[in-house]
Amino acid sequence: MDIATPETLGFSSQRLARINTVMQHYVDENKLAGIVTLVARRNEVVHLAKCGMADIDAGLPMEFDTLFRIFSMTKPITSTAVLMLYEEGRLRLTDPVSQYIPAFKDVKVLDYTEGSGVRQVDPVRPVTIRDLLTHTAGLSYGFDEGVYVDESVRKHVWTAMEANPDLTLEAFVAQVAKVPLAHQPGTRFRYSLATDVLGFLAQIISGMPFDDFLKRRIFEPLGMPDTDFWAPPEKIGRLAVCYGPAEGGGLQATNPRTMMDYTRHPKIPSGGGGLVSTIVDYLRFCRMLLNKGELDGVRLLGRKTVELMTTNHLPDGVHPDDPAYGFGLGVNVLMDLGKSQTLGSIGSFGWGGAANTNFWIDPVEELIGILMLQFMPSETYPVAPDFRILAYQALVD
Prior knowledge:
Structural class: alpha+beta
Order of helices and strands: HEEEEHEEHHHHHEEEHEEHEEHEEEH
Radius of gyration: 21 Å
């Protein structure tokens, strides 16, 4: 990959070098095994660096073609797939999900009225496709201990997957629909399995398996050969090990419940968190969005659709766990620079993954930042905000 002279694109080479120093510090302190970082502006890469190891025991260093489990950085790609079908007139954002997935016809909502106990009521309106895209459908992930709706997810969804390794995407979504909604549709933001439901929706409407749809309609046209729901045998040696904190300090390989087996083709391609990719591949996807839906003569989305995708859709006073941000159709959107307590621009958008992968796109500065590593739990260290600040502080034009 060609790297442009930073000064020709408004960056200071000396200041950009601070990214390398700070990332290497994380590795030297044995907090993170290895990191790959990329900064691009106006469609040209000005920084691409790697440090540390992809596999400590095997002695494999991080490389620019290392494969990463990008987890929830899958979500913007799945959302793009749904918006492509929206542009073709095959769905409307206001359509009830039950119009395409009958399992959602009988969905109920938990009633938290004082003294009601655990009571289920009818939704005031159906769950829509827009609700899924904005995580306002009332679905859950099952991560919160002691919360009734999350316990229901564990009982109906995750237990079903563990009991039946041949569970299909259709059957998986049917299990999701058995869980009562945590709130009335469209009223609150709740991060959830909504994007996995969107993957099945794309499968139904397109008439092809969801993973095939992504490959044929997004990955192949954009030139993303290393992005898939698994690492085939010839690529498995490039898949970075995921690490976590070891007792007494340092790192150890980890295999949390959220970790799928990426060495074989999955029965359930997770639209919410199942892809593996490289930093080079994901740059292709980011460049398409920064270019308002087009890259190298290939147009996936119209510019007005990208505008809609990257506009805040949440009700007044509702935020995705951060008062500085709103949420669009599959990505967060920076709304208040002061509240963010970091560097950036109003209207920048992006998302991250559970293993601390992260990306953002800044249309004002025509800037892309991508961070790739494999460490869980997320946000154990402030590596993502550090990287963002280091990228922006290097702008001098």
